Backbone:
């Protein structure tokens, strides 16, 4: 059945990728075209062949131009070469083009795909640009490395608002936030605080918050308790794969990366080079990415037609090798044959699985909001991190007192976040990485004091690896205390 529902074609950029990518992309495009998708396709080359030409990020300048022009990217999996010097193309594209929201629906297909959770149907909305995925890492001493976790108010606001708008537009009942703000009270604490603020704007949508460890355990045990989940980048990356797997197969899941300027749609699995060219791969993950794309560009009726035909195909037991199971499956097919089976069922709906209905005409208010009034920021001290192998906190404190300056005093020394001076616990393990906190004693504190302290600490014979300013905002402390302080 061929349907033509949209007169004007939408320009999109397509990359066939590496490994199984070309096969599953061909199958995906055949299916959605047969259903009536109106697309004007620009093809670009990315991935392994581009890496091998010496481009460390796997994408050429001309491809960027295509993405900026079409603003829609349907991408097959790629292979990133082993070894250092090669950047993740996914992360590069997401961050360069401001794709702040990663959306991954995870629904079970019981009894046609084996799962312990037959009633699972949730969506994970993951912040896509911040957290530890900023990739800001340093080796600071022989023993200690660092990765910065960055959570911003604007980044938190827009992803949390997106989650509530998504829930409302798709008739979802509840949004749940996962954080670890019992430990990371400032970073995850900000994400949780913003969640509570924005939830008040959506009285028609239930809201709740879980600490991520027990929340993850609950999701693995009772996923039907959740509907839409929103969380910072790292937790979302890990748990969206977990959620996809407990539905029955990671290979069936697609994802959307939503931005104001460009959005990318893909499968969540890799390029599986061992399966390439054998007509074995399941195209369902990329197909589901394409369904999210169709919905995004206003061709939701086509997406609904394809999705229901795909459900009917699964229900009829027409399965690729990865989900084939004796006694449940009726016929094992290859990539091309699976696509043919879906095309042959266009216009049909599942008889046992629940048919899908895509939101029609729903509007999502995800416009960027201007920042509010700025807080009064006051400089009150500095943390100076030193590399001191074989150091002793009492001796370090003694030297720093001798090198002290007027207007600031050493108040605490910590080692990997745990207080070791004054009155440290003798059982605490010491690495070679020490944080020496200086706070103002009276009057104002400014950059001049920091410069003097850096000079004094250096003259005392210590190797400074980092400094971090200490500030209050409207009188509230904007920095953590050491464990045990």
Residues:
């Amino acid at each position: 059945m061929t349907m033509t529902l949209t007169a004007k074609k939408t320009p999109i950029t397509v990359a066939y990728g590496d490994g199984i990518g070309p096969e599953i992309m061909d199958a995906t495009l055949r299916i959605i075209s047969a259903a009536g998708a109106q697309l004007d396709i620009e093809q670009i080359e990315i991935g392994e062949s581009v890496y091998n030409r010496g481009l460390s990020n796997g994408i050429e300048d001309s491809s960027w131009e295509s993405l900026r022009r079409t603003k829609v990217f349907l991408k097959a999996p790629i292979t990133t070469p082993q070894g250092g010097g090669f950047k993740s193309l996914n992360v590069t594209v997401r961050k360069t083009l401001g794709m702040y929201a990663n959306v991954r629906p995870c629904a079970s297909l019981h009894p046609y795909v084996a799962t312990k959770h037959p009633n699972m149907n949730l969506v994970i909305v993951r912040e896509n640009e911040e957290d530890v995925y900023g990739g800001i890492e340093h080796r600071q001493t022989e023993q200690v490395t660092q990765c910065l976790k960055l959570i911003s108010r604007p980044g938190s606001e827009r992803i949390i608002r997106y989650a509530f708008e998504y829930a409302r537009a798709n008739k979802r009942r509840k949004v749940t936030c996962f954080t670890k703000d019992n430990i990371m009270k400032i970073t995850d604490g900000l994400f949780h605080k913003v969640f509570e603020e924005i939830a008040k704007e959506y009285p028609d949508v239930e809201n709740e918050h879980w600490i991520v460890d027990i929340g993850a355990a609950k999701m693995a045990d009772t996923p039907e308790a959740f509907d839409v989940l929103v969380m910072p980048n790292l937790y979302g990356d890990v748990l969206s794969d977990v959620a996809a797997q407990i539905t029955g197969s990671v290979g069936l899941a697609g994802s959307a990366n939503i931005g104001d300027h460009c959005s990318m749609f893909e499968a969540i699995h890799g390029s599986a080079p061992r399966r390439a060219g054998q007509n074995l791969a399941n195209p369902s993950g990329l197909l589901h990415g394409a369904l999210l794309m169709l919905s995004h560009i206003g061709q939701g009726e086509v997406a609904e037609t394809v999705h229901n035909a795909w459900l009917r195909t699964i229900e009829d037991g027409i399965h690729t090798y990865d989900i084939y199971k004796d006694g449940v499956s009726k016929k094992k097919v290859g990539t091309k044959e699976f696509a043919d089976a879906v095309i042959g069922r266009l216009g049909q709906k599942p008889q046992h699985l629940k048919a899908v209905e895509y939101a029609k005409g729903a509007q999502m208010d995800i416009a960027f909001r201007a920042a509010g009034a700025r807080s009064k920021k006051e400089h009150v001290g500095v943390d100076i991190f030193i590399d001191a192998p074989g150091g002793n906190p009492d001796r370090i404190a003694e030297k720093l007192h001798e090198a002290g300056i007027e207007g600031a005093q050493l108040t605490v020394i910590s080692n990997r976040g745990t207080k070791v001076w004054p009155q440290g616990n003798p059982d605490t393990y010491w690495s070679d990485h020490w944080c020496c906190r200086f706070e103002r004693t009276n009057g104002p504190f400014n950059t001049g004091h920091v410069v003097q302290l850096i000079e004094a600490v250096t003259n005392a014979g210590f190797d400074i690896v980092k400094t971090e300013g200490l500030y209050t905002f409207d009188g509230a402390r904007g920095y953590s205390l050491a464990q045990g302080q």
In short: The chain is about 30% helix and 25% strand. Residues 1-6 have pLDDT under 50 and may be disordered.
